[in-house]
Write a structure and sequence with these properties.
Length: 265
């Protein structure tokens, strides 16, 4: 036995010892790799870096940034809404009301200056009872002539009044055209709903003033025509009365002496 052990070379024993040590050391070196966690952590200069935690932080930051962007867009929308409301509440910087009122007043003054018979119901009734209608059988010839002249003056005055109103309405046409052009421009350039509404209201007021002029013109022409017809009807009745008086038997013709050429012989 001793001879056998001594017969092994000395170099082979020296090579076997490092190999055995390597076999025993392998489980120790491999075990950290097999038991490492699913989420690796790395250290740099004493600071531990966790990729999973970093990814969660990045996702949280992105969501927070998206919420901030949404809030900013919401504030921008609210600011734009306030701007639009301010525009909708802005007044129209143009007004045609004064000019429209002046046109209406001019036409009213022309109607109020009606001659002899005003545009008043009581006045019309009183004048027709006094000067129009049936002629009184007891009126003198002088009274008949005076009434006929008064009626003629009323007719001529009515025709003149109608022509004056016509001239005033025609004068308002140029002013209305300028105001209409300005209001249409203001309506087209309106910045908000209130300005557009106000421009539309002023256009309606201008149309109302034009309708008032048209009504005044029709009234003046109707008044002149009515006076003419009333005068014609009363004149016909007066003519019948004068003819009756002329044909009524009376004292008749009484002959008398006549001197001609100063002949006294």
């Amino acid at each position: 036995m001793k001879a056998t052990q001594s017969s092994r070379p000395k170099g082979s024993r020296q090579r076997a010892l490092p190999f055995a040590a390597l076999l025993f050391a392998m489980p120790i070196a491999v075990s950290p790799i097999l038991t490492a966690p699913a989420h690796a952590q790395f250290g740099f200069g004493g600071i531990v870096y966790d990729p999973t935690n970093y990814a969660q932080n990045v996702l949280t930051a992105a969501r927070s940034l998206e919420q901030i962007n949404n809030q900013i867009r919401s504030l921008q929308n609210e600011a734009q809404s306030l701007i639009n409301q301010a525009r909708n509440l802005a007044n129209l910087p143009y007004s045609a009301l004064q000019q429209i009122q002046q046109n209406v007043q001019r036409t009213q003054q022309l109607l109020q200056q009606a001659q002899n018979i005003a545009f008043d119901v009581q006045t019309v009734d009183r004048m027709f009872q006094q000067q129009y209608g049936r002629v009184s059988l007891s009126a003198s010839d002088t009274k008949l002539v005076t009434d006929a002249r008064t009626r003629w003056q009323n007719t001529v005055g009515g025709l003149q009044d109608a022509m004056r109103v016509q001239a005033g309405v025609v004068t308002n046409i140029d002013t209305n055209r300028a105001e209409m052009s300005a209001l249409v421009s203001q309506s087209q350039g309106a910045q908000g709903a209130l300005q557009a509404t106000q421009a539309g209201n002023q256009l309606l007021a201008l149309q109302s003033q034009q309708l008032s002029d048209l009504i005044a013109l029709i009234s003046a022409n109707g008044r002149a025509a009515a006076l003419t017809e009333a005068d014609r009807a009363t004149a016909a009745d007066q003519g019948r009365e004068q003819r009756r008086r002329f044909l009524t038997p009376g004292s008749g013709y009484q002959p008398g002496n006549a001197q001609m050429f100063g002949n006294d012989k």
